[in-house]
C-alpha cells in the first residue's frame, strides 16, 4: 500500500526557531500590516517587497539558549494565489539559522518537486549568509534536475521532476535563506482548492506568515485549529486577501500519550464543494474504463478453476490482482486521477492503486458482483467535513455483501489476507463512487483488540542440570500478523545452511546456549497460511544455582511499563487528554510457559496480578499443578481518547502492572 499524491496546493513547513530581539518587532509588524491591507505581495527573484530581509536576519538567536535544536527558523513564509479554475501559484520562503553540525548537514542540500507538464518551478533565490547578514554564497554551488524516482520507475505514469541544489558555506553560525515558486497552469482537479498551513514547524520559529490571495467572489471554507492569533482579511481590486501572521512560535514539547490532534496551530482552506461533486468528478474520469478484453476473460477463468463459493471466487481474484500485478507505488494525482484501461494493466503486469482497483472492479462486475472504487487517504486523517478530492491519495475496491454493506479490498496490500484491511486504513473515512456519480461516504471497519492477537508459548521439560527440552511457538492474528508476513514474504528461499543458522538463532534467543531443530515457518504471501513460527529447543541453561538457591530465568516478555511510568511522573500534573491508542491500542498479547519440573522440585510462586481500567486489562498467573509450573501474562489494550482527569486511573493501572516485574522464579529441590 502506498500513498497517492500530496494535495496539489499543500505546504508542510519544515522547522522553526529562536528568541527574538524586541527592537526588530515593529519593523516586521509594519511589513505584515502593509501586505494585509493590499493585494498579496508579488515575490520574484528580485525579492519580496513585503519583508525586510535585514530585519529578519536580526532575529538570529543565541545558540546557547537552544541547545536542544539543530537549527531554528527566523522566517517561515507562504504566499499562495488561486484562480477560480484552480490554477495559481505557491511561493514559499524559509530563513534558517544553523546551530549545529547536524543542522548544517540537514540544510546543505535542498530538493524541489514539480510536474513538468502542469507546473513551472522558479527558484527565486538560495543564499547563505553569516550571522551579521553578509552574503557568503549568493547561489547554489551545484544544481541538478532529474526525474523523480517514481517517474524513473514508471515514466508512463508520472512527469514528476526533482530539482536539487547544493549550498556552499553552510555551517553552524550561518543563515540559509531560500525562496521558490511553483506555478500551476493546468490543475489536476478543476475548481477544487485545498491548501493548508501549519504554524508549528517542530523548531522554534521567530516569524510565521501565510497569505492567501483569491478572487473576491470565491467564498472558501476556512478551518482554523488551535490558533492563538487572528487572521486579517482585506478586499481590493477584485481580490480577497487573507493573512495569518504571528511570531515567537515555540517548539512543542508534547505530553506523553497525548493525541496529535490537540497540538499544533494550523489552517485548512478549501472550496465549497460537496462529496457529491467529488463523486461526479471521479465517475466522469472512470467512465468507460471498466471494459475487459478476451485475454483477461480467459485468464480470469483459469484463476477461478475449481472455485465454488462467493468468497472463494472473490479471494482468488483478489490474490491474483494484489500479487501478480506489480504495484507501481504512486500516490493518486502524481500518476493522474484517471485509471488506465484494464487491457493496458494486464499487458504491462503492473499498475498504481487506481489501476489495480479498477481492474479488480471490472473483473468482479463481469462475474455478476456489485463493486465500486473507493477514494481514501492511505495514512488516514481525511476530514469528512471538508469535501475535496485533494484529501485522497489512494484507491481501493468495494464489493457489495449479500446481506447488505460493503467488503473493502486494498489491491496494493499484497500480504493482507482477503477480507482484512491494512491497519492504517481501519476506522478511517472513504468515499465510495458509483458509476452515475453518486457518492457514499463510508467508515472502514476496525478490528477489535481480541482480533489483533500475538501469542508466545514455551512448553517442555526443565532438566536437572538446567537445560530445556521442548518447543517454542509464536503466532499472530489481525494487525499483529503483518510484521511476520513481511519477514516471510521473500520469494527467495534460504538454503539448508541458512535454515540451520536461523534455527540456531531462534533457539538461542529463547534459551541461552541451546540448540534448535524442526524449525517451522510459513509462507508470508500465502494469504490462507496461519502466521506461525515454531522450533524445538534442546539444552542451554534456564537457571543458575546461587549457592544452593536455584533461580529460573523466565523466557517471557516483561510487560512492566517502568519507563512509561517514569516519563509520565516526570511531567507533573496532566493538562492534555490521553489517547488510549498510544498506550497500547487495540492489541492483545499473551506470553505463556508450561514447564515440567524435575521430580520433587517446587516453585516459590510470585503473586498473581489482576488490573483493569478504561485503558485495558492485564493478568499475570503463577501456579504449579503437580510438576507443571504454569506462568501466563496477558495484556489487552483499548482505543479512545480520555480526559486529563483520568490520568490518576492510568497511573494506578500502570503501577498495578508494574508489580509483575518478575524476571526470575526461585525453585526448591
Q: Strand order within the widest sheet?
A: 5-4-8-2-1-10-13-12
Strand content: 25-35%
Approximate shape: globular
Percentage of residues in helical conformation = 10-25%
Per DSSP, the total helix count is: 14
Average predicted local confidence, pLDDT: 90
Instruction: Sketch the major β-sheet.
Output: 8 strands, mixed
**Distance between the amino and carboxyl termini:** 56 Å
Structural class: alpha+beta
Strand elements, count:
35
Q: Rg, please? A: 30 Å
Task: Characterize the structure shown.
This protein is of the alpha+beta class and 669 residues long. The chain has 14 helices and 35 strands. Strands 5-4-8-2-1-10-13-12 form an eight-stranded mixed sheet, sandwiched between helices. The protein has an eight-stranded mixed sheet with strand order 24-25-23-22-29-33-32-31. A hairpin with a 5-residue loop joins β20 and β21. α7 runs antiparallel to α9 and α12 (562-570) runs antiparallel to α14. The two termini are 56 Å apart. Mean pLDDT is 90; it is low at 1-37 and 151-156.
Amino acid at each position: 500500500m502506498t500513498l497517492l499524491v500530496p494535495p496539489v496546493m499543500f505546504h508542510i513547513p519544515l522547522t522553526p526557531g529562536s528568541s527574538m530581539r524586541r527592537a526588530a518587532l515593529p519593523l516586521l509588524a509594519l511589513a505584515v500590516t502593509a501586505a494585509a491591507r493590499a493585494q498579496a505581495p508579488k515575490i520574484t527573484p528580485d525579492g519580496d517587497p513585503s519583508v525586510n530581509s535585514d530585519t529578519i536576519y536580526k532575529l538570529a538567536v543565541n545558540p546557547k539558549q537552544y541547545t536542544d535544536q539543530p537549527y531554528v527558523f527566523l522566517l517561515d513564509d507562504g504566499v499562495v494565489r488561486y484562480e477560480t479554475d484552480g490554477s495559481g501559484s505557491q511561493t514559499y520562503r524559509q530563513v534558517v539559522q544553523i546551530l549545529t553540525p547536524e543542522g548544517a548537514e540537514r540544510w546543505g542540500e535542498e530538493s524541489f518537486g514539480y510536474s513538468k507538464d502542469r507546473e513551472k518551478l522558479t527558484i527565486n533565490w538560495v543564499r547563505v549568509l553569516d550571522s551579521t547578514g553578509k552574503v557568503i554564497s549568493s547561489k547554489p554551488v551545484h544544481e541538478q534536475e532529474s526525474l523523480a524516482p517514481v517517474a524513473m520507475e514508471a515514466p508512463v505514469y508520472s512527469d514528476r521532476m526533482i530539482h536539487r541544489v547544493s549550498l556552499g558555506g553552510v555551517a553552524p553560525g550561518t543563515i540559509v535563506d531560500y525562496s521558490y515558486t511553483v506555478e500551476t497552469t493546468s490543475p489536476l482537479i478543476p475548481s477544487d482548492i485545498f491548501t493548508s498551513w501549519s504554524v508549528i514547524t517542530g523548531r522554534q520559529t521567530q516569524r510565521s506568515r501565510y497569505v492567501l490571495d483569491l478572487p473576491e467572489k470565491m467564498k472558501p471554507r476556512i478551518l482554523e485549529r488551535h490558533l492563538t492569533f487572528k487572521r486579517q482579511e482585506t478586499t481590493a481590486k477584485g481580490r480577497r486577501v487573507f493573512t495569518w501572521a504571528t511570531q515567537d512560535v515555540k517548539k512543542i514539547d508534547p505530553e506523553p500519550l497525548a493525541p496529535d490532534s490537540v497540538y499544533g496551530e494550523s489552517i485548512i482552506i478549501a472550496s465549497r464543494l460537496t462529496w457529491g461533486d467529488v463523486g461526479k468528478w471521479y465517475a466522469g474520469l472512470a467512465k468507460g474504463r471498466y471494459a475487459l478484453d478476451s485475454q483477461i476473460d480467459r485468464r480470469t477463468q483459469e484463476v477461478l478453476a475449481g472455485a465454488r463459493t462467493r468468497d472463494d471466487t472473490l479471494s482468488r481474484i483478489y490474490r491474483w490482482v494484489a500479487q501478480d500485478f506489480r504495484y507501481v507505488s504512486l500516490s493518486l494525482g502524481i500518476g493522474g486521477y484517471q485509471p488506465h484501461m484494464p487491457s493496458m494493466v494486464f499487458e504491462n503486469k503492473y499498475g498504481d492503486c487506481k489501476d489495480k482497483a479498477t481492474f479488480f472492479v471490472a473483473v468482479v462486475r463481469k462475474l455478476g458482483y456489485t463493486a465500486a472504487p473507493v477514494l481514501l487517504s492511505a495514512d488516514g486523517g481525511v476530514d469528512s467535513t471538508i469535501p475535496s478530492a485533494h484529501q485522497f491519495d489512494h484507491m481501493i475496491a468495494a464489493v457489495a455483501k449479500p446481506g447488505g454493506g460493503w467488503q473493502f479490498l486494498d489491491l496494493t496490500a499484497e500480504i493482507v489476507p482477503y477480507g482484512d484491511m491494512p491497519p492504517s486504513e481501519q476506522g478511517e473515512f472513504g468515499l465510495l463512487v458509483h458509476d452515475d456519480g453518486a457518492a457514499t461516504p463510508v467508515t472502514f471497519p476496525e478490528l477489535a483488540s481480541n482480533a489483533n492477537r500475538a501469542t508466545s508459548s514455551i512448553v517442555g521439560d526443565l532438566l536437572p542440570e538446567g537445560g530445556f527440552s521442548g518447543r517454542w511457538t509464536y503466532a499472530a492474528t489481525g494487525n499483529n500478523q503483518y510484521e511476520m508476513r513481511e519477514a516471510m514474504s521473500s520469494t527467495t528461499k534460504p538454503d539448508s545452511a541458512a535454515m540451520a543458522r536461523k534455527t540456531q538463532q531462534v533457539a538461542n534467543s529463547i534459551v541461552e546456549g541451546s540448540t534448535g531443530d524442526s524449525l517451522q515457518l510459513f509462507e508470508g504471501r500465502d494469504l490462507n497460511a496461519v502466521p506461525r513460527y515454531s522450533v524445538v529447543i534442546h539444552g542451554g541453561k534456564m537457571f543458575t544455582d546461587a549457592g544452593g538457591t536455584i533461580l529460573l530465568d523466565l523466557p517471557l516478555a516483561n510487560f512492566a511499563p517502568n519507563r512509561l511510568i517514569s516519563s509520565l511522573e516526570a511531567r507533573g500534573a496532566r493538562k492534555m487528554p490521553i489517547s488510549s491508542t498510544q498506550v497500547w491500542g487495540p492489541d492483545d498479547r499473551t506470553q505463556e510457559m508450561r514447564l515440567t519440573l524435575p521430580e520433587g522440585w517446587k516453585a516459590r510462586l510470585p503473586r498473581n496480578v489482576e488490573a483493569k481500567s478504561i485503558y485495558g486489562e492485564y493478568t499475570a498467573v503463577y501456579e504449579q499443578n503437580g510438576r507443571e509450573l504454569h506462568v501466563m501474562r496477558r495484556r489487552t489494550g483499548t482505543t479512545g481518547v480520555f480526559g486529563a482527569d483520568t490520568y490518576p486511573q492510568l497511573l494506578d493501572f500502570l503501577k498495578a502492572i508494574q508489580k509483575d516485574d518478575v524476571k526470575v522464579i526461585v525453585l526448591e529441590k
